[in-house]
């Protein structure tokens, strides 16, 4: 296995060196053709994602990937072109020199795909890696090999050289990082992130980690509680709770906590119910033992705790659950949020100006005001967290640049006084 992987990466690296010399406009043409083929064959996604309503597949998988294609077609060329530095800001003792900064691909990027959004998330990362000039080794999540074959077949049909992408078996993991890749991009849990980071460190391979989120929601005193209830019900139920930026920790002031709980119950009762998972039941039992309350409504675990037991929520459970946390003020909410080991996304509900001021104090990498989840699918926006939620970014301009490394080139034209 190790020898096979080493040989495969060597072949990918050779292909990447040739691909890096292909003009960016030609790479973008492939992305445009891919978008057309994806749109033409979108109906086939029913076959690969039968467990989901097709409308949800369109909204959560197809539309964001399509938007990312259009973003890359529009923005990639100017973003990746060499940037010449003028004389302004140049130290006086470097007179007679000029400088340029180029964005160069890493080489071979290993993309480890997730199971919650198995088309959209790795699809965007693969496209960004390829447009940036890299070759790609892609390991899909278990159970999604056929979908991965479909994705790569559309890329090859669009004109992408077959030598640039290698599809790895979804169950191939234990020996995967013994060979050095040039960059590893993981979307997964915090535990998986630790394992991959340790393996990558042995070969000093840089990584981008998009990991777990236990997202906070701040309900300001003047928030529209009906809107908050609808948003929380939507966010906790989307994809059966398997969304990394699903809402979980909901900070509410005393005057709003009971009205919000009532509005949530009424909204969740209209949702179709799935049986709660064992891990969700364990969390609910722990909350009750600590003096809190737990109930299951519409397939969502609705929990009530106070600030003294909030550390029980410092847990990564990829299921639909909401914990209403009573706080005296939003200042207390911010301090409690800072105690969390996770900082991926956050949402705030209330007057815009107050929310904007509060948002500046949060650690999360993606923040929504008077909404949640959906605005983060904007292809122009970067996505990433800190703490146990990972590091680095994917998507947007910053995500495309993260697939490259900056190379500085300085030229001496005259006045090399130090060489006289």
UniProtKB/TrEMBL annotation:
Keyword annotations of the record: Oxidoreductase
Domain of life: Bacteria
Molecular function via GO: oxidoreductase activity, acting on the aldehyde or oxo group of donors, NAD or NADP as acceptor
Leader sequence residues: none
Domain Aldehyde dehydrogenase: 9-288, 311-405
Pfam families: Aldedh
SUPFAM superfamilies: ALDH-like
Family (UniProt): Belongs to the aldehyde dehydrogenase family.
Name under which the protein is recorded: Aldehyde dehydrogenase
Record organism: Kozakia baliensis
Organism lineage string: Bacteria, Pseudomonadati, Pseudomonadota, Alphaproteobacteria, Acetobacterales
